[in-house]
Each structure stands twice: as C-alpha cells, then as structure tokens.
Model the fold of this input.
Amino acid sequence: MTQPTPRTDTDAAASGGFLAEIKDAVTTRAAVLVLGVLALQLAFITSYIGAFHHPRPREIPLAVAAPAQPLAARTAERLAALPGKPLDPRAVADEATALARIRNREADGALIVDPARPDDRLLVASGAGASLSQALEQVIGLAEKSQGRELAVVDVAPADQGDSRGLSSFYLVVGWCVGGYLCAAILAISAGARPANVHRAVIRLGALLLYAIAAGLLGAVIAGPVLGALPGPVPALWGLGTLVVFAVGALTLALQGLAGVVGIGLAILLVVVFGNPSAGGAYPYPLLPPFWRAIGPAMPPGAGTYAARSLAYFRGNGAAGPMLVLSAWAVAGAAVTLACAVVRRGRPGAAVGSGPS
Done:
C-alpha cells in the first residue's frame, strides 16, 4: 500500500497560487517595515533638497563700525532696509569691537566704514563657512556699489588650507554621528532592541561610552594631525567627539527602548534626515530656509558642527551653548534608556530580526 506524501509549505503555497506565494515570502511585518523605509527615503529626499535647493541669506549678523557713531548707525539702518532682509546689522563703537564680535561668534562679519577713503572694508570669517563669507561679500558688495563705494574683503578667521570650504568640521561630526547610531544599532542586533533589565541597560550605556571615547579620539587625530584638515587642539576635539557619539548613541538606545527595532529608523530620521541638512555644514544657518535654520542648533549634527568650528577657528568662543545641547541629548537619552529598562524589567528583548521586540 502506498503511503501518502506529506505536503510541504512550498507545495501549500504553490497550490494557493501566486498570491499565496507572495504572502508566504513577504510577511506583514516585513511589508510594514519596507513601507517605513520608503517613507524614510522620501523624507530624506525632501529634507535635503528642501534645505539646499535655494540658499538665500537671511538676517546675517553684521557689525558696523565707523569713525563717527552716527555714520555707523545710518549705515546699519541702510543695510537693514535691504530687500529680503539679508542682513541683521548692528552699529558698534569701533573696529576693535567689531573684530571682537566676530571672534566671539556674535557676528558673522563686520563692515568698517571709512569716509576718508574710496573703499570700505568687510571683515569675514571663512572658518565659519565659506558660503557664508561669499554671501556677505556679494550682498554688501552690491550695497556698497549702489553708494559709489568700493569694498575690500579681509578674512580675519580663514579656513585652514587643508579644510576645503570649511567643511571638514561638518564631515567629522557626521562621521561621529554615524558611529553613534550604528554602535547602538549593533547592540540591538546582538542582544535585543530593548534591554531586559537595568543592569543590561547600564552595560549598554557603558559600552557606548567606551566606544564614544575611542571614536572621539580617533576622529580628532585623523582630522587633525593625520590629514591636516582641521586645526584646533586635539584634546578639545576629542572631548567634543566623545560627547557627539555618546549623545547620538544614547538617543538611539532611548528610541529603541521606546519603539523597539523601529527606534533605529526614528534615530536616522532625527539625526540624518533632519539633523544633517540643518547642521550648517555646506550652508551655515543664515543661508538655510526658516524650518531648517530653526531646528539646526537644537540637533546633534548642528550643535556638533558649530562647536567644532568654534574650537578650530575661534578659540572655543561660542562652543558652550552647543556643548550644552549635546549634553542634554546625552543625559535625556541615557535617562530614557534606563527608564524603559525599569518598566520592562524581567521581560527579555528579542534580537533584531527574530520578530517583534
């Protein structure tokens, strides 16, 4: 007597036709994740093109100095009235004050008016971004020409010879951010998106801190002594890099604790999709559209880029605020990670790829 042959899953799918084969090959969970990736991709395209497709100067901080205070005030008023408000000029006492405002990162440039000469001087700082210096030169050059004046440009904080257009700080910070969320994602892949208890959450944060220390040091050494792309003290850049990596990694761990595997995508959304184009890298804040200009200083890439430029070209002036922003992300991320572990105590987290966690 012939024994019946057991039916396999493949046979069952085949007997149900092509639709059944699709359902067997692509689970509902996989389909939802693919749709999430599509949404992330479209957000990426929209954010980057939206930020970069039409850079236009908006209220660039500018100091104005002249031998007589009334002349400086009148010049500032005239520049403030330019169509589209590309400048935010402020009259200051003298050239020394104007220069100090640039070096303290309180102004992005300074116009020194000298009625005894046929030309005025524009002080710029290309270390804060070459595109910003060029925008100032273009806007003020046209304004001076309309007054029958010539313009001489002086770069008082030039970008280093190895720092093409002042972008090395931005790329360094982007690299640190990538390391932060990838390290956190790998921890999820290896042992579950959500830590099973507080001890494991502390271990993950400790591992992330060790990684951040190493990544911060190596990034600073490569950008500085190895490639000669970014001036500035290596210990200060090391500290900044450690903070950037840990802040982004802690944010990613926190989002994983809240949303499981989806948290990795949320971290990419915040850091890469919204954070990178608003970081002031290719186009500093005054050249970005209002939305990206508003969120940039509060995001890790923007805070890190601004602080890196401050350390490299402005003796650390202006770095305190961005460092506080990064510290807030780091503390909040670590706190949420630990809180999620407390709530989830005793429930093991599945590794990424093994099903919902």
Remarks:
- Residues 198-226 form the longest helix (29 residues).
- DSSP finds 13 helices and five strands in the chain.
- The longest strand covers residues 60-65.
